[in-house]
Fold this protein.
Amino acid sequence: MKISNKLKSRQQPFCSLEFFPPREREQWPAFFDIAGRLRAAAPEFVSITYGAGGSTQDNTLEVARHLHSELGFETLVHLTCVKSSREKIDAFLNSLADAGIENILALRGDPPRGESYDWSGAEFRYAGDLVRYVRDKHPNFEVGVAAYPYPHPESGSFQSDRRYTQQKIQAGASFVITQLMFDVREYFDLVERLNSLGIMVPIIPGVLPVLSLESLRRTLSMCGANMPGKLYFQLEEAHNQGGPEAVKEAGTRFAVEQCRKLLEWGAPGVHLYTLNRAETCLRIVDELRACGALPKPE
Ligand SMILES: Cc1cc2nc3c(=O)[nH]c(=O)nc-3n(C[C@H](O)[C@H](O)[C@H](O)COP(=O)(O)OP(=O)(O)OC[C@H]3O[C@@H](n4cnc5c(N)ncnc54)[C@H](O)[C@@H]3O)c2cc1C
């Protein structure tokens, strides 16, 4: 089912979950076991990332098929267009259609780190080009796009970043998932600005539960997210007093509080970056149900 139709018919807040395809096949059974356990969170949909460097694109397809057909999740498949071609995009989308998958998240992706990429002959330059192409040649797919609560690292200004986001949606995207943020005001500011540009599609905030200081540092350096100094200080304090387990506990508690505020202040749902772990997300969802921010399962 198309995600926008699901969201339209839904009156209550929801969660969705993001996975990445494990690189090695030997890791797949354990991964599918984790994904299966996360059915208890009753996600509105799950999404599966797509490796821009080329290494995991086939994995994305196979893992997506399994999530959709075997585990019964409404599945959103990420698709990047950097270094890709129309032919390759067509083949990928045709395989998704054969698997009964109807939703993609259209992204530009990034050239491999350290590589200076010549865009001059590129068939797709920006995510907006991919949105237009898919809407035109594969109209049966529903298309979502990414947006950034703070400006994307390459954008010239806040204003231009918002304008390009607006253009992607006007090109035919019907929902948005945001890059992770820790300060909920950044999300509501993004929503307000896109609304003021006439964009009224669902904008789903991305939430990353912090599980370790090391992975947090890596993520921040990759995506350029802002981290409130107070939170970073709290996590360091937790580490000094109780080590990695205490960081995980503090990170999980922060994520519960962040999701609660997002949902109670009007976000349609929360998109949890699971990092392919089950316990933390199950706990977050349980706590959100307990405080009434998410509906209890029927
Ligand atoms: C929810 C989410 C999921 C993601 N999943 C993946 C994934 O699975 N695989 C992966 O490799 N990466 C993923 N990414 C990362 C993403 O690929 C990078 O952030 C990438 O740098 C930008 O992708 P985009 O689709 O936002 O690009 P775009 O929308 O094309 O924007 C890229 C930059 O170009 C600017 N821009 C856009 N349009 C124009 C225009 N017409 N003219 C001039 N400038 C323009 C924007 O302001 C921005 O600075 C994800 C990001 C998010 C937020």
Remarks:
- Residues 53 and 115 are 11 Å apart (CA to CA).
- The first helix runs from residue 3 to 9.
- The chain has a mean pLDDT of 94.
